[in-house]
Amino acid sequence: MQTRTWNAAELIRKDQAHHLHPLSNLYRLRQQGPLVLVRGEGAWLWDAEGNRYLDGFAGLWNVNVGHGRRELAEAARAQMEEVAFVPTFFGLTSPPTIELAARLAELFPDPINHFQFTSGGAESNETAIKIARYYWWLKGQPERVKILSRQMAYHGIAMGALSATGVPAYWEGFGPRPPGFIHLTAPYYYRAGEGMTEAEFVAALVRELEETIEREGPETIAAFIGEPVQGAGGVVVPPEGYWPAIAEVLERHGILLILDEVITGFGRTGTMFGMQQYGLSPDIVSFAKAITSGYLPLGGVGVTDEIFDVLSSVDRMFMHGFTYSGHPVACAVALRNLQIIEEERLPDNAREAGSYLLSELSELLDRPYVGNVRGKGLMLLVELVADKATKAKFEPSFQLASKLEQATRTRGLIARCTPEGIVLAPPLIITREECDFLLEAVAGALEDVLG
C-alpha cells in the first residue's frame, strides 16, 4: 500500500501549539510533544518517522477487529453516498439505524430488545442513568434517584457519568459533582480482601450492599451501575459468586441493574458480552467502543421490554438524546463490524489469546516488584509494587507510569502504563506470534525500569 510521507517535527510543532489533549499530562506534552501515529494494519501501528508498534491497547480498548479494515471503510463510503446524516429526533430515522437496533436485539440476551444510540461511552452512561431515574418517575416514584456505583469504577467523564466514576483523580479540579451517587467497595480481592477467603470477601461486599440499601432506603435508590469487569480503574476481575449475589440483592429490593459494557462488550472478555461471563440479566446496558471497533464514534443503551413499555406508555416527549444519536454512517459501519466479529469468531480468539497471555504473564510473579497479574479475556493488568510483602505502591516521585511508557514504546509496544502497572488490551485479532512479541516487550520493559 502506498503510504504518505510525513514531516514529524512539523506535526509535533503544530500539535504543541494548538492541540489540547484529553486525559494527558499537558505540561509534559508542551515539553516533549506527542507520538504521532499515521498508519495502522491489523494489530500494528506506525508513527510519522516510520517506527512500528504493536497496539497493545487496541486504541482505547476498542479496535477489536484491528486497524486498516477496508470492509469498514467501504461500509462508510457506501452509506455516505446514499445519505450521510439523518437525525433520530422527532420520529425520524434511517435504514442502518433500524437494522442495527434489530441486530442488537438478536445479540443481547432477552429481554434487552430496545436501543437508543449515542456517540460514545460517557453519553451512554449518562443516558442509562437518566433512563433509570425517568423510569421510576413515570412509575410514580420520583424519589428514586440515587445511583449505587463502586470505587475504581470508570463510567466516563460527563458530569453524571463522572459522579458514577469511582476514581477520585477524575474529580479533582472540576468543582462539585451532582448529588445522589454512592460508591461501594470494588471487588478487588488483591487489596480489599486482605485476610479473607474469596467467599468471605464476597459475603462482606454483599453485606456492605445490604447495609447501604438499608441506610439510604431502597425507596430512594434508582439503580446500581457496574462494569462486569472493571476496566480503566484497574482491570478488577470479580471473585467467583460476586455478581450473582449482588444481582439477587438488587432484585429483592427492586433496584435496577445497569451493566456498563462499554469496554467488555463485543468480544473482549471471551464472550460477546461481559454479562455472559456471569449469567447476568440487567435491566439496562450501556455500550460503545467496539461496536464500530473505533472506526466511527458510536455508543448506545439497551433496555428491557418492561422498561420500554413504561417509557412508551405515556403520551409525552422523551426529552433526551444527542444530535448524532443513531448516525446512519456509524450504524452502517457497526453492522459490518459486528459481522466481522461473528464471522471471524473474535470472542473465541479473545478467550484463547487472553488465557495464554495471562498464563505467561503470571510467570512475572517471580519478580520482586510484580504483585499481582489478573485478567479476563483480552483485558489484562500486571500490577507492580515497591514492596511485595506490604503491597506498598511506588512513590509518585518515582514516576513509574512515564518510565514504563517510555520503556514499552522503545521496545515497540503501545500499552496503557499507570502508577499501578501495565494494562494490556490488544485487538481481538492478535496472533500467537504477536502475543509472544507483546510478552517479550513487557518483560524487557520491566527489566529496563525496575531491574
From TrEMBL:
Q: At the top level of its lineage, which domain of life is listed? A: Bacteria
Which PROSITE patterns does this one have? AA_TRANSFER_CLASS_3 (PS00600)
InterPro entries listed in its UniProt record: Aminotrans_3, Aminotrans_3_PPA_site, PyrdxlP-dep_Trfase, PyrdxlP-dep_Trfase_major, PyrdxlP-dep_Trfase_small
For this protein, the record's SUPFAM superfamilies field holds: PLP-dependent transferases
Q: Which GO terms describe its molecular function?
A: pyridoxal phosphate binding; transaminase activity
Needed cofactors, names only, are: pyridoxal 5'-phosphate
* Record key words, sorted: Aminotransferase, Pyridoxal phosphate, Transferase
Family named by the database record: Belongs to the class-III pyridoxal-phosphate-dependent aminotransferase family.
State what protein this is by name. Aspartate aminotransferase family protein
Organism of origin is: Thermalbibacter longus
